[in-house]
Design a protein that fits this description.
alpha/beta, six-stranded parallel beta sheet, 2 domains, Rossmann fold, Elongation Factor Tu (Ef-tu), domain 3, six-stranded antiparallel beta sheet, 5 helices, about 230 residues
Amino acid sequence: MKDTARAFRATVRRIEYIGRRYAIIEAQVSPDFIHSPGQFTKVAFVDQEGTFERYYSIASAPHGDGRFELCLILDEQRTRDLVEGWAPGSIFMCSAPAGRFTIPRYHRPIVCIAGGSGITPLKAIIEDRLKQRDAAPTILLYGCQSDAEIPFYDDLKRLALHHPSLNLQIFADDTALGRAQPGRPLDELNHFILADADYLLCGPPAFMEAARNLLVQQGVAPDAIHQDRY
């Protein structure tokens, strides 16, 4: 794992709120902030009570110019209070990228299974994969509680529109806006079992464990199943 001790000074370029639960941040650091798809960074927050840190997966493929995206979860009031004060030009500190989430070989199909903010490292991996010429098919099964709070919805739809090799399936419990299919991705997983594919899981621990169990029951080899763990 890379050393996360080095601190980078990041500048907010853009901030977008997804309902009340998420904030999407595009940030700029120096070009020597070099990450691989699927890695994470540690963000340092400072308030009147002191400094606290949170880990966030990097949500964008490497650009080579120090730009990257994060999806910040705002369920915690302490974090929400600080992030809601940010605007373009705001400064925060983050660590060097780290983490070893598996990057499958491009010639093998992949099935990505995400829940909630678990989309973040998978989005980076998918973006990177779609840049490669003749990459094998990619399937994304993505589940959210509400289709009003789907991080990176427009980005994912755009990727699917421009890359026919990406099969995008979005599910939600609440589909009031018509932006997702009713139901949950694990209920449909048996329809997306591919021979010689890798399976990438990211989401709440119980979600990933249930997905892993279902895949094993369908005959998927354990070494073809990869879970995101810091």
